[in-house]
Design brief:
The chain is of the alpha+beta class. It is built from 2 helices and 10 strands. The strands form 3 sheets. Strands 1-6-7-8 form a 4-stranded antiparallel β-sheet, with no helix packed on it. The chain has a 3-stranded mixed β-sheet with strand order 3-2-5, with no helix packed on it. One of its GO terms (biological process) is alkane catabolic process.
């Protein structure tokens, strides 16, 4: 009994340690560029703009989104199973998160926050796969001009220390707020 309790406590500490520290910079772009290749461009002050998810009722919730023939393919957002139920992943099986401190499409995770939680970036229109609802996919402009993928109007992120298929940081508080995996309906997993 005592061994099981110690193992549970050790596993809980490992998950909390794996998801970063409580501190962090959520708005100061003057820190050094994030470590991740996904966020290698500098984040200098520039107005953010967003493309809202399509609200057109005639768009199907299909496994793929049609793109104009001349557009670059964007980041593929798909779904997969997890202990939290179906959730969003990218095409490389990286778990995708949203942050409770961002109730709109305007990103506020910069500096140390973006070091730990690199934004899901795209060079073209994001592409829906699996059970992703194309009408919920959108984009927003980050400081420095990078385009970040949104879902249901919320900016999307990865956790830097997770490998493909790993989901270690659901409902974990870092950088002043909770991070949640995202369900196909756009809501955080319970």
């Amino acid at each position: 009994m005592r061994s099981a309790l110690l193992a549970t406590l050790a596993a809980s500490a490992l998950v909390l340690t794996a998801c970063g520290s409580e501190g962090g910079d959520t708005a100061d772009p003057s820190t050094s560029p994030p470590r991740s290749a996904a966020t290698s461009a500098s984040d200098t002050a520039e107005p953010e703009t967003a493309t809202e998810p399509s609200s057109s009722p005639d768009l199907p919730d299909s496994p793929a989104t049609a793109r104009p023939p001349d557009s670059d393919p964007g980041t593929v957002i798909t779904t997969g199973g997890s202990e939290f139920g179906p959730m969003l992943f990218d095409e490389n099986d990286q778990a995708i998160y949203m942050w409770e401190r961002e109730p709109t499409s305007k990103p506020t995770c910069y500096g140390d926050c973006a070091d730990a939680w690199p934004p899901v970036l795209t060079d073209g229109e994001p592409v829906a796969a699996g059970k992703v609802k194309p009408r919920l996919l959108g984009t927003t402009k980050r400081r420095g001009g990078q385009i970040q993928v949104t879902y249901g109007g919320h900016p999307l992120y990865y956790y830097v220390d997770e490998g493909p298929g790993e989901v270690l940081c659901h409902n974990v508080a870092t950088h002043g707020g909770l991070w949640w995996v995202v369900q196909p309906d756009g809501d955080p997993a319970p």
